[in-house]
Amino acid sequence: MSSFPVCVICLLFLVDLVCAKQVCSEQDVLEYLNLTRDNEKFTTCRPALDWTHPTIVYFDIYLYGILSMIEKSRIFVPLLWMCMSWNNERISWDPKDFCDITSVTLPTEMLWKPDLYVHEMSEREDGPLNPYLYITHDGNVKMEDDHKIVSTCIMNVHKFPFDTQKCHITVSSISYSDKEIKLIPASNSSKATKVARESILTMGEWEFLNISVSLQNESYEGETYDRIKYTISLRRMPLMHFINFQLPILFFLVLDLASFFIPDRGEKLCFKVTVLLGISVLLLILNDILPSKSHRCPLIAVYVVVIFSFMLLSLLETILVVYLININSEQDAKEVQRPDDHNSDTDNRKTDSNDCICYSGVEAPLDSLMLKEIYSKESMNDVQLLQLILEELQTIKQTLVPDTLKAKTDQIYWLGLAKCINRVFFAVYLISVSLFLVFIVQESKAE
User: Fold this and answer.
1) How confident is the model at residue 27 (pLDDT cuts 50, 70, 90)?
2) Does the global pTM surpass 0.85?
3) Which of 161, 265, 361, 409 is the most exposed place for a label (fewest CB within 10 A)?
4) For 247-275, how does the pLDDT look when each residue is reduced to its tens digit (9 = 90+)?
5) 131 CB-contact burial (10 Å; exposed 0-12 / middle 13-18 / buried 19+)
6) In terms of domains, do 219 and 276 share one?
7) Which of 237, 263, 287 is the last residue of a domain?
8) Beta strands in 239-383 (DSSP E)
9) Backbone φ and ψ of 223, nearest 5°
10) What is the number of domains present in the chain?
11) Can you give 258-284 as a three-state secondary structure string?
């Protein structure tokens, strides 16, 4: 009786020894499944034992980076981690027969894979792809890989740089209809957004908002195909654009308004031309930023063009005012020149002794007939002499005063007109610019 427990213990020890010596590898699983690179049963056909049963493919996308978004060429380049899984009905094994091996890693070319593609992709990927996939003992196949997708994106730059963009990543099968492959998103919108916010590494000048996931159907040549559409919403961070572009234009506008207080018209004209050239340089920069085609005119283009137009009108108004002031200056010069000409004629006549006579120390020209009559009558008394002189002065006044008064009136008219135009234009200019800036701010905030 005492030897029986010893035998039982020895038997158990031998069993444990045999089990401990059992060695398994993933190659044993592949040999059991007859998985080789040349086995067309696993590589060419959809893995369904009954062809009427569609293969359900679970697809998921994780966004972890935004490399660039180019408005000029409408290119969106995200970094995506794509994961898809499906069931291969031809693959199964009992883990107990292979030392509890539940999953195996093997090259991708050894099994059939869904022919999924991205509709918006504009360039083929040139980087290396993951060469392996994973299978489990119950036939589940999982394939993961990271992708740099160069895709097209329809961008709305109407509110640039305060815009929000929505770019789409649409995935579907090329040759399998929904009767053969059914696509199902593995994650809903909230889960995809949460994972992206936790894993995103780089965003550049963009701020990630959310990802919207939707399952759609499209018909082509009588067949219906499943497709999963991921809508990635991004918002531009406008600080650098505002500081480097919009703020300098606003400074130029303030300088143009301040130029109305420059007293020297010539310096004012040169200053306005310089400011206008500065705006022209910023227009060239804007042309390189914005796309060449857009359904709606960008607000920033309206902002720059209208301000440029305001400054152009301001320059034309300055040219007009300078022209009116120059007319006034020319009339002043003519008025100054007339007395000089009269004095020079008087001096010339004084130098000629034959043409001038002197009475009581006063020289007078002999051209006047009245004066000749005065000096010809020696018996004329002083009252009559003064009366004749008064008549002569009235004659001279009637000749000179109308021209002088007309010249002075013209000078006052042109100078007053220039000042009036300048004041009215400045008031209208200031009000118009203020209303326009308020309009731009409201439009940029509107949905």
Assistant:
1) confident
2) no
3) 361
4) 889 999 999 998 888 887 778 888 888 88
5) exposed
6) no
7) 237
8) 356-359, 362-365
9) -110, 150
10) 2
11) HHHHCCCHHHHHHHHHHHHHHHHHHHH
